């Protein structure tokens, strides 16, 4: 089989990759994510600063931008956050609308964080559900 044939067979769309990622997650709604946090789990907000400044933040959520996520939450990494103490830690990844967080949660699972998942609908769903949000700082 030629290289072009192998490449063609392995090409998948982002929608296919997203469906595959989500198939391995027990994704949570806003109320379920709030319950995980109340029980001692982590909500990890991976939105970039401009979105947090525009929309506010979830009180008590860890802010870890996507490009640092694996280093900050890997319990074996020297650069981990103190909260990332063990692999059985419940982690709910929050992005803006619930897309990037699915891929991020899968990445955390690959690091051994077996209870990592994400928030369906992301921050926007959290806010729409009437759950607590700290408004952006006034400029």
Automatic annotation (TrEMBL):
Record-linked Pfam families: Rhodanese
Lineage top rank: taxon: Bacteria
Boundaries of every Rhodanese domain copy: 37-135
PROSITE patterns found in the cross-reference section:
RHODANESE_3
User: By its UniProt entry, which SMART domains does this protein fall under?
Assistant: RHOD
InterPro entries from the xrefs?
A: Rhodanese-like_dom (IPR001763), Rhodanese-like_dom_sf (IPR036873)
Which protein is depicted?
Answer: Sulfurtransferase
What is the species of this protein?
A: Streptomyces coffeae
């Amino acid at each position: 089989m030629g290289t072009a044939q192998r490449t063609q067979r392995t090409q998948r769309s982002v929608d296919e990759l997203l469906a595959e990622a989500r198939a391995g997650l027990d994704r949570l709604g806003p109320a379920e994510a709030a319950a995980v946090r109340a029980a001692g789990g982590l909500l990890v907000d991976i939105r970039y600063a401009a979105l947090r400044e525009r929309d506010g933040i979830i009180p008590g959520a860890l802010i870890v931008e996507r490009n640092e996520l694996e280093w900050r939450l890997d319990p074996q990494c020297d650069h981990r956050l103190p909260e990332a103490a063990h692999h059985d830690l419940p982690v709910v990844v929050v992005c803006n609308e619930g897309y990037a967080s699915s891929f991020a949660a899968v990445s955390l699972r690959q690091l051994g964080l077996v209870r990592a998942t994400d928030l369906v609908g992301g921050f926007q769903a959290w806010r729409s559900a009437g759950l607590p949000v700290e408004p952006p700082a006034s400029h």
